[in-house]
Write a structure and sequence with these properties.
107 residues, mainly alpha, two-stranded antiparallel sheet, 5 helices, extended
Amino acid sequence: MSKVLITILLCGLVTWLIRVVPFALVKATTLPKWLLQFLSFVPVAILAAIFVESLLVYHQGQWPSVNTENLLASIPAIIAGVISKSLLVVVVVGIVAMALIRAFGLA
């Protein structure tokens, strides 16, 4: 077996363990209420970071600029999220909005 294949398999194992072990540990113990409350904000923080990062374009040595395509596609997605409160609806509306923006060259 080549070293590359062994490396890929070991990286896959480590990645899998990193994702599975925390769930097994949390399931076996009871977490304090303050920790559960703190962890409830993690998905919102991650989604906000990903959202803002996709709206900005990095320019070395300058302020970031706004990605107009992503900004325009995010408007109907945000409205759909506020109305439906469904992540699936947000994703579908965002994809359709981006497809329409690119198809008609709006940005």
